[in-house]
TrEMBL record:
It comes from Carbonactinospora thermoautotrophica. This is DUF742 domain-containing protein. It comes from the Bacteria. Pfam families: DUF742.
């Protein structure tokens, strides 16, 4: 996979200190995502693999490029881009608002199997 740590203009990157642009500058000063639907395991894929990212800021463009071929989790995207998860969630919210990504969230625990059914299955197995 491509190393995205140097995807910005080299004048904004210093070998000793890293990126010279603070995360809040990447998000336009926002510190919290407008949406609360992104967890670390939410899967993200680019809605249109042919989308032109040349007019986008570097960070959203990098997210779309990363997620063109296969879905990635929010945690993976943050790791590949070397950005805090909170920043990635804000950027993903913007991309989702513009219908540039598709997300798949995990099922809530309320939709999981009934505990009594699981206990009955375990009891049945023990009786074997």
């Amino acid at each position: 996979m491509t190393n995205w740590t140097n995807w910005t203009d080299e004048s904004w990157f210093d070998e000793a200190t890293g990126r010279l642009v603070r995360p809040y500058a990447v998000t336009g000063g926002r510190t919290r995502p407008a949406r609360d639907e992104f967890s670390l395991i939410t899967l993200v894929i680019t809605a249109d693999p042919e989308v032109d990212t040349s007019r986008l800021e570097p960070e959203p463009a990098a997210i779309l490029d990363l997620c063109r071929q296969r879905p990635l989790s929010v945690a993976e995207i943050a790791a590949y881009l070397d950005l805090p998860v909170s920043v990635v969630k804000i950027l993903l919210g913007d991309l989702l608002d513009n219908a540039m990504i598709v997300v798949r969230t995990s099922a809530p625990m309320a939709n999981g199997p009934d505990l009594s059914v699981l206990e009955a299955v375990i009891d049945g197995i023990r009786k074997l």
